[in-house]
Design brief:
By secondary structure, the chain is α/β, with parallel strands linked by helices. The protein has a single domain, classed as Aldolase class I (TIM Barrel, Alpha-Beta Barrel). 46% of the residues lie in helices and 14% in strands. Helix 2 links the parallel strand 1 and strand 2. Helix 5 runs parallel beside helix 6 and helix 9 runs antiparallel to helix 10. The radius of gyration is 18 Å and the shape is globular. The relative contact order is 0.15. About 4% of the residues have low confidence.
Length: 285
């Protein structure tokens, strides 16, 4: 298939009443396994990497690998910069061929968030790239360190924000948070429903790791189109690597590689099935 703009995948999914998985990757094994799951299920996906991950997974190395893998995939794949924090990083991602960028100005006051986001929209349009932005404040932090609190998206603000910025997708905050949840979050579906009535572009749910499968399905029915999965994939990769390294056999890189691929593949495959909304949840392993 092809490397495509994220907007294309979001529009297709919205029309088919399903969600698109946006899977964070940090190394070759994660890229390989995410595409393996997507091709097996014949479902388009989004490969993404957040700016805070770049100290461990440099953009100059990860970017070309992600883009080339998408070009050679047997399903359509978008390559996305998640939580871009600077225009410099956004520019680098676009120059490397990323087909989508998220510029996170959610920490700034409302009017400044609009102004900063409009700059990115203008830049991305020159590349034909999709733009995602955030309104509200997703709890936790992308790098797994102690983060900030949660500030739910105001539905009226969301309407103004989308009209003023011209973004293609909006990250909303309804009680979700990055990282591992101590307990399953209680999502504010009434807020999501109100935003969905007011905003007519695809909505995005961050902090997906730890949300129940049933809540994913409900969120998709109320306008969520893109769902981010990061922590669950990193955790499953680590688990399979630990299991292998605890085994009594003689260890080597190649079998370790296979264990890491298997871990991410398992997690991505499960979430694709959930987001496709085609099978009953009780039949999904």
């Amino acid at each position: 298939m092809a490397l495509v703009a994220m907007k294309k995948l979001l529009e297709q999914a919205k029309a088919e009443s399903r969600g698109v998985g946006a899977f964070s990757v940090g190394n070759m094994e994660m890229v390989k396994s995410a595409l393996q799951a997507a091709e097996e299920l014949q479902t388009p996906i989004i490969l993404q990497i957040a700016e805070v991950r770049l100290k461990h997974s440099p953009l100059a190395l990860m970017g070309p690998m992600m883009v080339q893998a998408a070009k050679e995939a047997q399903v359509d794949v978008a390559v996305h910069l998640d939580h871009g924090l600077t225009l410099e990083t956004v520019q680098k991602a676009l120059d490397l061929g990323f087909t989508s960028v998220m510029f996170d100005s959610s920490f700034y006051p409302f009017e400044e968030n609009i102004a900063r986001t409009k700059q990115v929209v203008e830049l991305a349009r020159r590349y034909g790239a999709t733009v995602e932005a955030e309104l509200g404040l997703v709890g936790g932090s992308e790098d797994g360190k102690a983060g900030h609190g949660i500030r739910c998206t105001d539905p009226a603000d969301a309407e103004v924000f989308c009209r003023e910025t011209g973004v293609d997708a909006l990250t909303v905050v309804i009680g979700n948070a990055h990282g591992n949840y101590p307990v399953a979050p209680k999502l504010a579906f009434d807020v999501l429903e109100d935003i969905h009535r007011r905003v007519h572009i695809p909505l995005v749910l961050h902090g997906g790791s730890g949300i129940t499968d049933a809540d994913f399905r409900k969120a998709i029915s109320l306008g969520i189109v893109k769902v981010n999965i990061a922590t669950a994939s990193f955790d499953r990769l680590t688990l399979r690597a630990e299991e292998y390294l605890r085994s009594e056999e003689r260890h080597n890189y190649f079998t370790l590689n296979e264990a890491m691929v298997r871990g991410t593949y398992e997690n991505v495959k499960h979430h694709i099935k959930v987001f496709n909304c085609a099978e009953p949840l009780e039949e999904i392993l």
